[in-house]
Amino acid sequence: MIPYTVNIKLAARTLTGTLNLQNKTAVDWGWQGLIAQGCHSSILIIDPKTAQTIQVLERHKTNVVKVKWSRENYYHNLSSPYCLRLASGDASGKIIVWDVVSGTAHCEIQEHSKPIQDLEWLWNQDASRDLLLAVHPPNYIVLWNGDTGAKLWKKSYAENILSFSFDPFDPSNLALLTSEGIVFITDFSHSKPPGSTGKKVYIASPHASPAHTKPAPAAAPAPTGAKKALNKVKVLITNEKPTAEAVTLNDCLQLSYLPSKRNHMLLLYPREILILDLELSQTVGVVAIERSGVPFIQVIPCAQRDALYCLHENGCITLRVCRATSAPEEANVQELVYDLRSQCDAIRVTKTVRPYRMLICPVNENKAALMVSDGRVMLWELKAHTGRAAANPSSGLLPLYSPVAFCGAPLGPNQKRIPDLCLNSMIGQTLIAGEPLPLASNQQEVQLKFLLTGLLSGLPLPPFAIRMCPPLTTKNINHYQPLLAIGTSNGSVLVYNLTSGLLHKELSVHSCEVRGIEWVSLTSFLSFATSSPNNMGMVRNELQHVDLPTGRCFAFRGERGNDEPPIEMIKVSHLKQYLVVVFRDKPLELWDIRTGTLLREMAKNFPTVTALEWSPSHNLKSLKKKQMAAREAMARQTVSDAEQSSVESSVISLLQDAESKSETSQSISAREHFVFTDTDGQVYHITVEGNTVKDGARIPPDGSMGSIACIAWKGDTLVLGDVDGNLNFWDLKARLSRGIPTHRGWVKKIRFAPGKGNQKLLVMYTDGAEVWDTKEVQMVSSTRFGRNVNYRILDIDWCTSDKVVLASDDGCIRVLEMAMKSASYRMDEQDLTDPVWCPYLLLPRAALTLKAFLLLQPWSGTFTMDITQVDLKSVLQDPELSLLQRCLLVSRLFGDESDLTFWTVASHYLQSFAQARQLSVSAAEGSEESQPSPQNHLDICQDVLCESSYFQKFQLDRVHLQEVKRSSYEHTKKCADQLLLLGQTDRAVQLLLETSADNPSYYCDSLKACLVTTITSSGPSQSTIKLVATNMIANGKLAEGVQLLCLIDKAADACRYLQTYGEWNRAAWLAKVRLNPAESSDVLKRWAEHLCSPQVNHKSKAILVLLSLGCFYKVGEMLHSMRYFDRAALFIEACLKYGVMEISEKTPVCAAFVDYARLLRSLGLREGAALWASRAGSAGEQLMEELFRGEGGVPEALLGEDEVELGQESTE
């Protein structure tokens, strides 16, 4: 006989419920493709593709207020693998950096004891990826090393800091949102704290400043509500503190830089979004809500397109896309307009249910997640439908076009594609003024719609009553499901399957709070609820019998239940034959569960029951034996009488056997006992058999015990617990009793663990719980509110022989090991219902192999692949998919930020240089070819990497807008300066002449206007101006000197001066807008060299700059020298394919190919390695020999299987 039955292995897990208000901002969607969400003191990790919770991290003692995934903006290899790193901050000021897969903490950081205000990983330098910037209230920012927990520096500011935002285009710029305004920091660096206190800017509230409204011209029609707001928001940024009546910035909800355009920022107010141009400190656009509209809570700007996702107070998510300025009739464009293009359904908002936060997928920017306060997560996807909109001329919206391209390259005629892969493949580029409209052939008109693709729901609000279904036995092992029934305060019962942690059924059973549940079989249970008492103290009792497979409920006590004292407890006997219902001031009732009949209602003088328990002993076995013996005797008799042949007799005995079995299960009523205690502590013993009830022995009370609160009985051990915290252990065999005072107050519940011979006992107190071993009479483990956990326990049960389940007042239900230490589980031990695609969950080596395997396929000639997403599979196997498209697609699948940026720029410039080359060849042959369409620009979010012509147009557009919006002399001066640099002299002169006579710089500006108009290209005047300019620059007037040099077309010199004085970004900007390609290329090459220098260490940025100049050899060399072997080899391969690089022995080509082959061999992809080695010419010969000598290689035959297995690994 086995002493213990081992239960199905259940993972420790946490079922979470409603969120705390402090969890509101604790959400983040990482490049890794997963969502992290704080729920009380735990953190949920959610997979948005399959809407499953795949990990719950527990270590914080207080509510989690911030979570941030680390950025994936670095090259991944075995030493810096794909890994899931998350930082979380809580209300007590502790920051934990997690290794999410194993559920362990890398390091813990504590500085102050106030809630963390904001967290962000630094993503932009090539040196270290472990740096974490945090705001510790009230006014400190601290830079931490997130790997070791060491503090690098700390800096305090004058005001309370609410949040911060990094400039995505320049990592040294940081804006702090403070309680009074904004602080701009321009010298942020990871090596030392910012030197200055930053530039403080105060913001007048949009509503309160009457000085800024300008009188409307009489002829103009009366403006609408939104237009009125626009007139008000003329100037919003002032450097001096606003006056008292102009309320300062306390209602600004959020500040973010726009990742789609450099030097733009948005400020969010409840009823409007302001777009600021930071060069002018001026509002250039407003998104205002009409009077009847729903206020904003949050806005997320996109990087791929100039678009905003907005969340409103009714839970509706809207997408607004910036209107193109290309239409000629809008020549007098007033500001940036964001048109509403799509919105999703709102939710029903109540006191307890309101939207908290919205998240956008950072990789593709076309999926949104909405966090609701009741613990729901709604996953929306943006879909593009081709087709014209219903004509609505009044809206004035231009149609949106979608590019017919896939992964950055034009779509082949019969190429498969993934629809709606990402935002920039759904919406074409916003046109810029002065550009021809695209040809219809290149674009399709699209409508955008939101689609709900997933929903996760949490537990309702506590209190809970929980009960685990009967334990696993050898008899039910084939169809056993570990189900946990949870009774809730609104009368419904939730049934969870604990293998997957998913909701199995939700049943609406009662009309009031569920007080208790008892299972009567593996698939049915009884639950009871009591309504609130009337003035007589009477209630309505509901006792329901629920059958799970069918969901059928019926009132177990029939018509009874109205106007009676409340039910205290129900207890089901061990064989599930009988039920005892105990009332508060009324004798107990005894029911037969099988027939649903009342066996006995006790007499009025029956003692008041305080605790009751059924005995595990019964006489079912002996009864069955007796009955079987009687049947056998009968069977023998009948057979001998008839003297049948032995064959028939065996048949008959079988039949009778079957008959007798069915009868036994029907008719046997085994004898069962229960014990209970009365208010004096006396123990009564009662026997039930069939419908007879006998009173047994009575045991006088134990003097050391108070009033008995609960009893538990298993085997020969009976345990009593009282209201004073004493436990009394009775050994019935040895007739010994032993009392132990626990000093923990009222013993609320005691339960024995399932499993034969398992004598562990779970005890619940008002302030926690303990596990006892009743054999040794010793405490095994304990948990106590305030000491080692921060939640109170509401209910307890065993879910297997070694795991307990606790319901707590923070709305969570936890399945824990017997030690009751709340711990995160390892993700790979999880039993998920749907497979999750997340390379970050694989071992580092496996993830890299998978990546190499996806990239490598074209050269092996065959396409074997086992990935769960079918559409993706067919695309990756499509022979039409070019190398560049494949690289881009894989970097998207992996959420690899640095890969994605590199391949986006590389693929664009490889194609454009290859095209230019073909054109020059064809022009030389004299054939006329159409110009490439101007539509394929790099998106403006790549900033200086864009083509000069496009960049120039964009800057002109921007100055035009600034000019319209300027409202003070300062602004006018800045506009004139910009116009001079851009070479728009006529317009600049007009602005200079606007200066009023009482302005101190009136004379200066007038002279400047004269100078600009009279500049001639005669030698002497040029040399004079050049001399003046150089003197100015030498004496610290850099900007003015540069302007003069630009006037005489010496912009190249101006760029050189700017670079000498460290103004690298400004120089690059000027080169892009003023210089011819050759000169501009020199300036940018110098910048790339500067970026590579060890003190700057921005090689990744330098590579992008070189790509935009078409220096492909140099890029190949750099990638190889940085040991980015796979990227280098694939890039060079693409260059050769597009004919922009010739292969020769001295180029970096061969070395890169050999090193990539070595990398593949180390990952076990031997065929691929051989292929690359053979491409490398003589350099690869040695490696080829090693490979086929069998060193570190695998026999040829195994290889195919290996690759297939890899594919399968990725799906698990």
Key phrases:
alpha+beta, Methylamine Dehydrogenase, Chain H, single chain, 1212 residues, 5-stranded antiparallel beta sheet, 27% helix, disordered C terminus
First and last CA, distance? 38 Å
CATH superfamily of the domain at 15-206 and 232-389 and 397-432 and 442-456: YVTN repeat-like/Quinoprotein amine dehydrogenase
Name the poorly predicted regions: 1-7, 207-235, 243-249, 327-331, 858-870, 927-935, 1191-1212
- Helix and strand content put the structural class at alpha+beta
Determine the fraction of residues in helical runs and give it as a percent range.
25-40%
Under CATH, the topology of the domain at 15-206 and 232-389 and 397-432 and 442-456 is which? Methylamine Dehydrogenase, Chain H
CATH level 1 class label of the domain at 15-206 and 232-389 and 397-432 and 442-456: Mainly Beta
- The spatial strand order of the largest sheet comes to 14-15-16-17-18
Radius of gyration in whole Å, from Cα?
38 Å
- Please state the second-level CATH architecture of the domain at 15-206 and 232-389 and 397-432 and 442-456: 7 Propeller
What kind of sheet is the major sheet?
A: 5 strands, antiparallel
